Amino acid sequence: MLLRILKIIVVAACAVLMLEPAGAAPSSGLAVEDLRLPDRMSDVVVNGEKSAYENVLGAYREALTKHPADAGLALAQCKFTERFAASEDLSWADVASQDLATCQSTLEKQFSSDPEAVLFVLENRFGKQAIDYGEPLLKSSNNWSAVQQARLHAALSRSYAFTKNDTRAGQEAVLAVRLDPASERLVEAMHYLVKTGQAKNAANLLAAAPMPKLLWQENARIRAATELLPGTEALDELHRAQRAGPKIDAYTTARALQHVGDSAGAEAALTADAASHKFESPQNQQLRLEVAFDSGNAKAAADVIHDQYVKTGKAAGFIGAYAHLLNLDPALIGRLDLLPLAFGLLAAIALVAASPGVLLFPVHYRGTVRQRIGKVSVPIFARIGLRHAWLALAIYFVLLYLVTALHSGMALISPVGSGASRIDWQSRVAASYLWALLFCALGLAWIAKLLSWRDWLGSGSWKLKWFIVPAGLLLIDLLATGWLHHAGVTKTASNVWAVALVHGAVAIGGTPLALLVLSVFVPIMEELVFRGCLLGGLSRHISFGWSNVLQAALFAGLHQDSRHLVFLFALGVIAGWLARKTKGLSMPILLHALNNAIFVFSVVS
């Protein structure tokens, strides 16, 4: 504001000087030839601004000479120079920057005990320099006001974020917001609290915060609530903003509505601002696609997919979305401009079905070599060979992929998603997986019939010592789960999908349904595929040791849980070993079921 006033004064002075009576000689001292050069006249104005700046700065310095202990006056001088130093339009901004540096140095040396002075210095520093200056202030800030302490923590939060120390940045942000609910570090505090399992506290901070003065800050709050908080907090914040008057943009509104399952309302908000679609970001276009799918608007979804396919020229990222589109409206398979995606979908299914060959072809070759040199492999299950292993894996992979794609496939338009996951997304994951299991069971039924009841239950003479190792594995899993839970660590955090499946099943049918799915259906299905068909087929051609290692490695890898990869591999190896020792699948199924039950209870407890 001060800069604008100075500009007005200078321009007005120049205008007054150039006014002259008709026929009179110019009183401005500016020649007509100069007046014909607007660039030169602009320089006159700029130089006038600089002169006015220097006059005011001189007045500050003169006043400080008379009042050297006036911290408020010294701070005002720094804030005055800061406005010109930060300008990108002034050719002499570097001069103001030097003046600002001198002023800050004076504040630091002469007024180090004044909170406002040191906060100004801190807030004009960044990264490690700010941390080194600000951390010692924490000890001396106890008698500061709450707002001043909040500014200190906010500045440290920004500095730690600059140095990529997200933990300290989040901790300082939380302290800042608790001291001053109006702190601009609210969104960062919410991120930290949710990341550390304190979503309720994040929601409380949001509810207690007053409306911000800047619209973009409120939009950021609503988007953060949509992305981070599991309930209706984002919608509540949207309604609070609407009552207060600020006009929230259509995409932020749509995110909040989509989050609570109001896809029709989200689509209406986006349709009302159709003009913005021409310049939307990939994240916003992803949102529009998700809203179109959930509201049942197949044409709108098809248009978004087509637009992105035309822009990128690559079909791979949109095959899942195309499959979901066909599930929404099968008639769209005839849409000519989307035919490349149809071929891409068919190719993807064929590739998934053929993928077991990468493992099984070399195994078949190795088995042939072993037979020629007289090494005989003894299969675990007499009626299971490599072709059954291939078919079982193909059915399992294709149906899991295809059913999931048809039910909830999504184009990867934005690598970070839309930030508008619905509050019922976990239930939708569970429902999709249940359909996938049903179709897998139907597809694998004919292979399951190849195993006799003895193959399922086991045969021969069992020994108690065989079960010591499996029991030890379960005990380790149980103890690790209990210790981590007691320590407040989420053991299953690396497998978000599996955790979502448990929560979704609980939401649909309670803990009994979660146990039925993960501790009954899944163990039977996966043991049939991996220990029955894959291990059974491999062991017909190569040694049991290599067969067991290969099937366990594939079993562990397909779970996509890097944190527990070693444990899953061990589980697969021990399950395969049990299948051989007991000559059946019942004990591997039981081991798998107990492990999954421990997982379910660790999630729901």
Automatic annotation (TrEMBL):
<feature type="transmembrane region" description="Helical">
    <location>
        <begin position="433"/>
        <end position="452"/>
    </location>
</feature>
<keyword id="KW-1133">Transmembrane helix</keyword>
<feature type="transmembrane region" description="Helical">
    <location>
        <begin position="390"/>
        <end position="413"/>
    </location>
</feature>
<keyword id="KW-0472">Membrane</keyword>
<protein>
    <recommendedName>
        <fullName>CAAX prenyl protease 2/Lysostaphin resistance protein A-like domain-containing protein</fullName>
    </recommendedName>
</protein>
<feature type="transmembrane region" description="Helical">
    <location>
        <begin position="534"/>
        <end position="556"/>
    </location>
</feature>
<keyword id="KW-0732">Signal</keyword>
<feature type="transmembrane region" description="Helical">
    <location>
        <begin position="562"/>
        <end position="578"/>
    </location>
</feature>
<feature type="transmembrane region" description="Helical">
    <location>
        <begin position="496"/>
        <end position="522"/>
    </location>
</feature>
<feature type="signal peptide">
    <location>
        <begin position="1"/>
        <end position="24"/>
    </location>
</feature>
<keyword id="KW-0812">Transmembrane</keyword>
<dbReference type="GO" id="GO:0080120">
    <property type="term" value="P:CAAX-box protein maturation"/>
</dbReference>
<feature type="transmembrane region" description="Helical">
    <location>
        <begin position="338"/>
        <end position="363"/>
    </location>
</feature>
<dbReference type="InterPro" id="IPR003675">
    <property type="entry name" value="Rce1/LyrA-like_dom"/>
</dbReference>
<feature type="domain" description="CAAX prenyl protease 2/Lysostaphin resistance protein A-like">
    <location>
        <begin position="512"/>
        <end position="598"/>
    </location>
</feature>
<dbReference type="Pfam" id="PF02517">
    <property type="entry name" value="Rce1-like"/>
</dbReference>
<feature type="transmembrane region" description="Helical">
    <location>
        <begin position="464"/>
        <end position="484"/>
    </location>
</feature>
<dbReference type="GO" id="GO:0004175">
    <property type="term" value="F:endopeptidase activity"/>
</dbReference>
